[in-house]
Design goal:
Layout lengths: L7 E5 L2 H7 L7 H10 L4 E5 L10 H4 L5 H13 L8 H7 L1
Length: 95
């Protein structure tokens, strides 16, 4: 990976990410793994407003007009193990 050993500035419009990086107790295992991975890099993080984020990825700014396509995407993301919903019972147990 070309970022190992290189100090860099991470600019994000995701304010919750900054909060997670500064918080010692993470809410769940997935968030802990994500943050653990991110923290292995040498970086500074800076918040920028979403409207000023001119390099945002196309997916985050894309408008999906086809309702069937939108439903398929939501279903796929909902069922993902890493970031998706783990179901009513698992969520209830987690609370």
């Amino acid at each position: 990976m070309y970022l190992y050993g290189v100090h860099f500035l991470l600019e994000t419009d995701c304010r919750p990410l900054i909060g997670l990086l500064n918080k010692p107790d993470l809410p769940n295992d997935a968030a802990s793994r994500w943050i653990g991975y991110i923290l292995q890099f040498d970086f500074e993080i800076s918040h920028i407003k979403g409207v000023e984020n001119c390099v945002a990825d196309a997916i985050s700014r894309r408008v999906i007009t086809d309702p069937d396509h939108k439903s398929k995407i939501i279903k796929q993301l909902h069922e993902m193990g890493e970031g998706g919903h783990r179901g009513r019972d698992a969520t209830k147990k987690n609370i």
